[in-house]
């Protein structure tokens, strides 16, 4: 029995996928039963490092998703359209789908999975989060017996690379971003990465799997790293933290029903140096899952790149082929590989978040300033863990505050009051603390 | 549809398993279709924290494995017998089996999987390695598309706890072992842990899955941690290493065919501080898998304990239930969940290993000693990375040597020659370097 693949896209990931499928020796034996049947590309003439018979290539992607001989469509063209339409057409033609497209799944997952369940096909997406790191599959198959409390990830390699270099070199964001762009670690248009949008797509997908419900992407709170300064990294270091862009999905404390709101968010965060995520540096990704009774488990690896991402794509193909092979008269979809969520998770607004905060203030250098700060925080039930005057810059005193766990809404109200104090010059940084 | 479980054993892991199955809310919905049907225990009268209807309990374990109503037998009694016989009888009666028993699988895996394939049933073992950490399943399902180069793990929590404390406190092995025993982190008879036998069982299982062949346990080289001294930990620290008990399975360099010998071994190892495994401390476990094209991925979590291990056991139950549910008329076993290995992997003798070494010598304090050491190493093609005289103890000079990659047989021959030198007092430590 051979399973026929229609590959949409022959860019970095498509090429890596083809390389694995064309050279199956010393890999899982089932791979030798998987055949690249057609490949959709933008241009037939482009020189490519991978040798594929010319007859396989076509620029007519629509003809692939409707080809009756194809069992599995692999979408690795990226972007929203035509990827979304091609996925939906493939499903309508009864094809199983493997995709690496976090943007499409996080926005149109509802539409796509509803269609897939109706058509009785699988839509697999291991490559959408964490590159080659197996995290989607463990969430679906191994960790689901737990009551998941939280998923916390470093899921964007570009921002982790920039923050790691800021940490090591003491440089400023803009300078290191420019260098990362020259070195190819950041895109010419870095918005999706540095503003946290890519990480938001990914945490929406992870939250959906961890908490068994769909997630509305616009409800995911998202804050990027462009305002993180070298000064904050240095203060965080002194206080025992490193700054990481974390993507976090968390169930409300003590609330275990699926109806209780989740907190789903992306923001730069002070991470204690002893925390397992603190040592994840450079372009590496890691996802920490906490649940009952498993405790903490963490998955670590390269979060992007041709090889790792192709490994995830081909593992999805292999899983579909394995199920198809063992279930010729299947009654229903495999319940751990298919999507069984119909309902949306309730997501709490960011004001309801309970977390610690770090804030840096520039104030006039006068006696009583710390007292006034403390009073304003106290007026809004914000309890402080530490207040340190770290130095004098341009005749302004710099004060760094770390709070205990507080409701974000209360903290914001306290800041609004503090901004009206005549001794306060500015608040250059506000960051959350894990 | 309900799947009926026969649970053999109600110790720590059995109790944790029952706790999850008896309280399925906010876990995977399929768990509510899994029923604890009978529980085999040694004594009916023992008080237990988990409430199970008395009628479920029996001391007649044989009657469980032959009960026609039971779909899945869960073996969590541990030890070799009667565990092995009960597993084989369950298989003979057409039951699927979930086990946490690394000792039985590493010794009798051949017999058990041959029987399981003949009977058309699954034998699942996620809990046998790494507690709750999903590592068996990713090796079977996600990573198999890669050409695996190596699996390197910290897979024994007791020894990692002891080495971590030796590192932090500077204490000696014997003292910290005694304290670990008092605190419950080490068994009264610590042999299986400190001599590396438990880790050897686990790496045999991981190697089998990673390299697609069976492993003969006596061919796994095994060296424990009882000879690691505080002095070595201190020198390693100065040289930029920490000492960990690693379990390693590695394909020969440049040899990709399944017939080329593997190196499979357990020994204390100097791990560079920058290596991802260096920061795994205390009772945590981590398994690092390297392959092509995925690069490095690492799995991290608690390697033992009731909750984590039960999470792994129940995830195996869930996977079997999912397959059974979706494949009422299955043609064959699911190829990624069943065992497809019939052949044994060739394992190279330890003399063939190519690795770096660390060795500590006590010598007479005379000029020319380092020259003689260097000459002897050179005579056997052992190239040195560093030779440092670290101090004088009781009128003996202490010299620490780190080699480049050498064939272990050559290194041993050089040591034999060095032992005959009249300026050499003793060689208190020989350790491999990652």
What can you see in these coordinates?
Chains A, B: It comes from Funiculus sociatus GB2-A5. Chains A, B: Its EC number is 1.1.1.3. Chains A, B: This is Homoserine dehydrogenase. Two copies of one chain form a homodimer. Chain A is an alpha/beta fold and 434 residues long. Chain A folds into three domains: 3-132 and 306-326, NAD(P)-binding Rossmann-like Domain (Rossmann fold, 3-Layer(aba) Sandwich); 136-302, Dihydrodipicolinate Reductase, domain 2 (2-Layer Sandwich), CATH 3.30.360; 354-433, Alpha-Beta Plaits (2-Layer Sandwich), CATH 3.30.70. Chain A is 34% helix and 26% strand. The first copy, chain A, contains 13 helices and 17 strands. Chain A has helices at 12-22, 61-65, 83-92, 102-119, 136-142, 157-169, 173-183, 191-194, 197-211, 230-239, 306-326, 369-379, 408-419, and strands at 3-8, 34-40, 57-58, 72-75, 96-99, 123-124, 147-154, 221-222, 241-251, 262-272, 284-292, 295-302, 354-364, 384-393, 396-403, 406-407, 424-433. In chain A, the strands form two sheets. In chain A, strands 7, 8, 9, 10, 11, 12, 13, 14, 15, 16 and 17 form an eleven-stranded mixed β-sheet that branches. In chain A, a hairpin with a 2-residue loop joins strand 11 and strand 12 (295-302). The N and C termini of chain A lie far apart (51 Å). The interface between A and B is large, with 67 and 67 residues. Strand 12 (295-302) of chain A pairs antiparallel with strand 12 of chain B.
């Amino acid at each position: 029995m051979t399973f026929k693949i229609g590959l949409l896209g022959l860019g970095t990931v498509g090429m890596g996928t083809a390389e694995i499928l064309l050279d199956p020796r010393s890999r899982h034996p089932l791979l030798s039963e998987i055949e690249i049947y057609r490949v959709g590309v933008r241009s037939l003439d482009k020189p490519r490092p991978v040798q594929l018979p010319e007859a396989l290539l076509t620029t007519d992607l629509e003809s692939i998703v409707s080809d009756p001989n194809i069992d599995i469509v692999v979408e690795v063209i990226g972007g929203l359209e035509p990827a979304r339409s091609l996925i939906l057409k493939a499903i309508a033609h009864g094809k199983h789908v493997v995709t690496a497209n976090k943007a499409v799944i996080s926005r149109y997952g509802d539409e796509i999975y509803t269609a897939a369940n109706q058509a009785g096909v699988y839509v697999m997406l291991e490559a959408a989060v964490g590159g080659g790191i197996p995290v989607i599959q463990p969430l679906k198959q191994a960790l689901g017996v737990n009551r998941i409390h939280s998923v916390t990830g470093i899921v964007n390699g570009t921002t982790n690379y920039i923050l790691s270099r800021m940490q090591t070199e003491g440089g400023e964001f803009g300078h290191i971003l420019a260098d990362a762009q020259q070195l190819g670690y950041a895109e010419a248009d870095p918005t999706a990465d540095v503003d946290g949008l890519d990480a938001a797509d990914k945490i929406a997908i992870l939250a959906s799997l961890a908490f068994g419900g769909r997630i509305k992407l616009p409800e995911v709170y998202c804050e990027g790293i462009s305002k993180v300064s070298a000064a904050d990294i240095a203060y965080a270091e002194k206080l025992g933290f490193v700054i990481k862009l974390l993507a976090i999905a968390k169930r409300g404390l003590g609330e275990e029903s699926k109806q209780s709101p989740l907190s789903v968010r992306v923001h730069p965060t002070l991470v204690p140096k002893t925390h397992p995520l603190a040592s994840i540096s450079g372009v590496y990704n890691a996802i920490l899952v906490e649940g009952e009774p498993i405790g903490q488990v963490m998955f670590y690896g390269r979060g992007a790149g041709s090889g790792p991402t192709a490994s995830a794509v081909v593992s999805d193909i292999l899983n579909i082929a394995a199920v198809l092979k063992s279930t010729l008269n299947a009654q229903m979809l495999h319940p751990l590989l298919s999507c069984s969520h119909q309902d949306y998770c309730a997501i709490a607004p960011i004001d309801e978040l309970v977390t610690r905060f770090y804030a840096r203030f520039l104030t006039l250098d006068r006696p009583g300033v710390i007292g006034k700060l403390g009073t304003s925080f106290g007026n809004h039930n914000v309890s402080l863990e530490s207040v340190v005057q770290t130095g004098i810059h341009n005749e302004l005193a710099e004060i760094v505050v770390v709070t205990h766990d507080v409701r974000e809404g209360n903290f914001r109200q306290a800041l609004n009051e503090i901004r009206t104090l005549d001794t306060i010059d500015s608040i250059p940084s506000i960051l959350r603390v894990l």
